[in-house]
Design goal:
943 residues, alpha/beta, four-stranded antiparallel beta sheet, four-stranded mixed beta sheet, 30 helices, 19% strand, elongated, RNA-binding
Length: 943
RNA sequence: GGGCGGAUAGCUCAGAUGGGAGAGCGCAGCCCUUACAAGGCUGAGGUCACAGGUUCGAUACCUGUUCCGCCCACCA
């Protein structure tokens, strides 16, 4: 009835089936959520990879875990939706394109804004599909019809909407501050985008002469001597006795001979350096704070490019590190460099290009974050969002507590442009037009009537007849002072709402990439439109991501979700590990230790690779990826394949799809079903707790060590006999195997589907078959007990054979003395299994057995095994074996004895524990005697 | 300067709520037995980093130490 003619290949060949099956699933629309409104929903949104990127190990792990969850839930009957998408990745992508341009010898400013953006879009199109194709190779069952991109029309709408609403509420504002500036990327960075790197630097001790007596000095210590040109004070601690009488006096700043005061501020650490600190408000965050308190002037000596400005006097035009060298030289010549010390300190670097960041004073856009953060902390405290493993919440809280306003503007071109416009005609308070205050700088001059124009105020440039568009296209820098009137708008405005003028200019900056990512869980579902998807799938169920973006992304999604959806964006946050190389090193291109997931897939197949990642994904620890492990799981797939081949030999004997525990006659069938029940329970429970490794381990163990090692071996006794009724065994083999396939499918989608569909010949995909749940099959404790006895007997015999080196070709005679009638019955019931699996020629099982002299012995709880070995092997060997066992038993007895003699143990330990130990002790004593007895018989034989 | 995580077999790692430690790979011995040598069977291999403490009992809980790794932080 189930007979189906198929040709089964020797081994599983992933390359031949993966592509075919994936297209099949996709064409059938299995990745789409079920539209049945009765079904509960389950939703995951993918952490969007960089649209121009390629797949790395981190993605592979991330995607595999999500796919396991989504396939599992889909099979459990949920309407499961996994929303895919990609991120425009502002700086990263722009950098790549800029680097390409550099190869042609041009930069983005030469190209102009529009032309450059065209290039980036082209680049995006040229590689935008790659990452998606790679996700598919892993087997990701995303609903590709819902694929989104952070800069597509809908998501751009969402970004605008959010910006406008926050702006209107006063939660977005502009301000002039010191910010982290990357001189290479030419943009501001948020605090998070600065990586602190511990570097071996130098501490320079520089003497500043006193004005009233230039022979006297104060010595300051600094790691950045080049910034001294911008010093506007020297600060000491008010308590510092060394300097107390100098407070208020004037110093002459060397090299440029500017006068600066000595001030007192309690943040100065008396212990460090000389206890006197040079204050450079324009180029140091601390100093800026000191300057605020003391109302010090700001002197900027380093510009956007990291080049010294005209305030640097004769050092103008020098690159910052070159200037440092010159200044040290000059100070040495002047005798003002007291000494130089080695000094380790943390230097802030750009997270994208590793350039040392420069604190720089500019006007930027900020999000007032406190009100959003408070709400985001609350929902986690209330347990509405759970972190797994939960240890991460502490990190989350810590960061949220001291969170600073989020700098969201970037001086880039690739990204969502800030929807704010400035009027150049509106008047400022002192009667000027605002456009006069806007400073424009070109990368290369515009030639007008033979005159080179490098820049100027906006209005000035317009008066030369340079168009607004040209200014926007060609400007390298457009500085718009903080005071200038502005307004936000959804659409490009025609007129200034204040004065009606048409002379408007849009903010040149774009938003931080993470601004759009923060909206991801609802923007991808259609917000701000009130779509069906949004109603059905928000809040999503789980976010699966790495710990490195908890602050960048997770926290911000929670804030934005609460703000705009009034609900959490997801209920669980599963934080997975970082994938390192086998030596524990972070993978990086520069180290050359990157393992390409696609190479793994090609070599071992997607299933083996996925299973490896799942098996590695224990909570709370980084993964040291090892290829050997993948190889090991390829062997596992081979095992599945071979088991299938075996079973398929009997397909024609199958009579039933379903098998019920109650209907089964033999203990071995009842046993394997009970074990299946355990495996089902373990797998589901582990997945519910995001314990992927345990889930993978449970199925692995069941398939290999219970189903293959025991059940298949037992079944051969039936199947290769011509007397036995094979129906029940065959039905069970198939039934259990099919359930294993289902259990495995979320982990190994391809091989399970290949077998299911093309070999078992099922008429529908395994991915929409019902996942086994704990109530599917019951458990039969009696069968489990019986099987344990049989296993013990077989193992006992095998152990003797193995340890005494009895060749497998030698069939032995075995006598089993059972200690009770029940055991006798059980062993007799299974005697043909023992015969076959232990390679026994004749087997006698009785309560009163007379045992032949010169037998090897194994003592079990309920029975003893005797194997006459006289003539088979050297008796001495058996003696050695028994002595070894005796030693082990005596050791155990000693230990238990000590424990049981301890009155405190008897009194305090749970009764159950005491009872068990006593029982064990009794058994060991008996065993001990038996071994002794056997030893003495052996002695006799030898002598 | 704070905070977090790790230290278990030769290697890579599991060990929910304390009762003499497990897997995979590797290693040794024996096997090409009619699903599978990418396999089977049998073994060897561990003072669970160190020192204290709590407990009848600690690899697990507490304290301290050492060695790794990470995150955060304005010592110039």
């Amino acid at each position: 009835m189930f007979r189906k003619e198929v040709s089964i290949s020797e081994t599983y060949k992933p390359q031949e089936v993966e592509k075919k099956l994936y297209s099949f699933w996709e064409e059938k629309g299995f990745f789409k959520p079920d539209s049945d409104p009765q079904k509960p929903s389950y939703c995951i949104v993918i952490p969007p990879p960089n649209v121009t990127g390629t797949l790395h190990m981190g993605h592979a792990l991330n995607v595999t875990l999500q796919d396991i969850l989504i396939r599992w839930k889909r099979m459990l009957g949920y309407s499961a939706l996994w929303v895919p998408g990609t991120d425009h990745a502002g700086i990263a992508t722009q950098n790549v394109v800029e680097r390409q341009l550099l190869q042609e010898g041009i930069n983005r400013y030469q190209l102009g804004r529009t032309a450059f953006l065209e290039k980036v879009w082209k680049w995006k199109e040229s590689c935008g599909g790659i990452i998606i194709e790679q996700l598919k190779r892993i087997g990701a069952s995303c609903d590709w019809s819902r694929l989104r991109f952070t800069m597509d029309e809908g998501l751009s709408e969402a970004v605008k909407e959010v910006f406008l609403r926050l702006f209107e509420e006063g939660l977005i504002y502009r301000d002039l501050r010191l910010i982290n500036w990357c001189p290479r990327c030419h943009t501001a960075l948020s605090d998070l985008e600065v990586e602190h790197e511990e570097l071996e630097g130098k501490l320079y001790y520089i003497k500043y002469p006193l004005k009233e007596d230039p022979k006297k000095f104060i010595t300051v210590a600094t790691t950045r001597p080049e910034t001294m040109l911008g010093d506007t004070a020297v600060a000491v601690n008010p308590e510092d006795k060394r300097y107390k009488n100098l407070i208020g006096k004037i110093l002459i700043l060397p090299l440029i001979n500017r006068e600066i005061p000595i001030i007192a501020d309690s943040v100065v650490d008396m212990e460090f350096g000389t206890g006197a600190v040079k204050v450079t408000p324009c180029h140091d965050f601390n100093d800026a704070e000191i300057a605020q308190r003391h109302n010090l002037p700001y002197v900027c000596v380093i510009n956007e490019e990291g080049i010294m400005t005209e305030n640097a006097g004769k050092y103008k035009g020098l690159e910052r590190y070159e200037a440092r060298k010159r200044i040290i030289n000059d100070l040495t010549e002047l005798g003002l460099l007291e000494k130089t010390e080695k000094h380790k300190h943390a230097v802030g670097c750009c997270y994208r290009c590793k350039t040392v960041i420069e604190p720089f004073q500019t006007v930027q856009w900020y999000v007032k974050i406190k009100p959003l953060a408070e709400e985001a902390v609350r929902v986690v405290q209330e347990g509405r969002i759970k972190f797994i493993p939960e240890g991460w919440v502490n990190n989350y809280y810590a960061w949220m507590r001291d969170i600073k306003d989020w700098c969201i503007s970037r001086q880039l071109w690739w990204g969502h442009r800030i929807p704010v416009w400035y009027c150049t005609k509106c008047k400022t308070s002192d009667g000027n037009e605002q456009g006069d205050l806007i400073e424009v700088l070109f990368y290369k001059p515009i030639t007008l009537n033979g005159k080179e124009i490098w820049g100027g105020s906006f209005n000035e440039l317009r008066s030369y007849g340079i168009s607004k568009e040209e200014i926007e296209q060609r400007a390298k820098i457009i500085k718009i002072p903080k005071e200038i009137k502005h307004f936000a708008s959804r659409e490009e405005p025609k007129n200034c709402p204040y004065c009606g003028s048409e002379e408007l200019i849009q903010d040149p900056d774009v938003l931080d990439t993470w601004f759009s990512s923060a909206l991801w869980p609802f923007s991808t579902l259609g917000w701000p439109q009130q779509t069906e998807d949004l109603k059905r799938f928000y809040p999503t169920d789980v976010l699966v991501t790495g710990f490195d973006i908890i602050f960048f992304w997770v926290a911000r999604m929670i804030m934005m979700g609460m703000k705009f959806m009034k609900d959490v964006p997801f209920r669980d946050v599963y934080i997975h590990a970082l994938v390192r190389d086998s030596k524990g090193q972070k993978m990086s291109k520069s180290k050359g230790n990157v393992i390409d997931p696609l190479v793994m897939i090609e070599k071992y197949g997607a299933d083996a690779f996925r299973f490896t990642l799942a098996a590695f994904a224990a909570q709370g620890r980084d993964i040291r990826f090892s290829e050997e492990r993948v190889e090991g799981y390829r062997h596992f797939i081979n095992k599945i394949w071979n088991a299938m081949k075996f079973i398929m030999n009997f397909a024609h004997l199958r009579t039933k799809e379903e098998v019920k525990l109650e209907d089964l006659k033999s203990f071995k069938e009842r046993w394997i079903l009970s074990k299946l029940s355990d495996a089902i329970y373990e797998t589901n429970r582990a997945l519910e707790a995001y314990r992927f490794n345990d889930a993978a381990g449970a199925v692995y163990h069941f398939l290999w060590h219970e189903f293959c090692d025991w059940y298949i071996e037992l079944s051969k006794v039936i199947l290769y006999s011509d007397k036995e009724d094979k129906e029940e065994t065959v039905n069970c083999l198939f039934y259990v195997f099919e359930n294993i396939l289902k259990l495995l499918h979320p982990f190994m989608p391809y091989v399970t589907e290949e077998i299911w569909l093309n070999i078992l010949g099922k008429d529908n995909s395994i991915m929409i078959s019902p996942y086994p749940t704990y109530d599917l099959v019951g458990k039969d404790e009696d069968a489990i007990y019986r099987m344990e006895q049989i296993i013990e007997a077989i193992s006992g015999i095998r152990s003797i054979r193995g340890e005494l080196n009895i060749a497998p070709s030698l069939a032995v005679d075995v006598y089993i003395k059972s200690l009770d009638s029940q055991t006798e019955e059980i062993l007799n019931d299974g005697h043909h299994f023992i015969l076959k699996l232990a390679k026994v020629r004749s087997l006698k099982i009785q309560r009163d057995i007379s045992r032949a002299k010169g037998s090897a012995v194994s003592v079990k709880k309920n029975f003893e095994i005797y194997i006459p070995i006289k003539g088979l092997i050297d008796i001495e060997q058996e003696k050695k074996r028994l002595l070894k066992e005796l030693q082990k038993v005596e050791q155990d007895i000693g230990f238990l004895n000590k424990k049981l003699m301890n009155e405190d143990f008897i009194r305090n330990a749970p009764k159950e524990v005491v009872r068990k130990d006593k029982e064990k002790y009794e058994e060991l004593l008996i065993k001990h005697d038996k071994i002794k007895e056997n030893l003495s018989i052996i002695e006799e034989l030898i002598n």
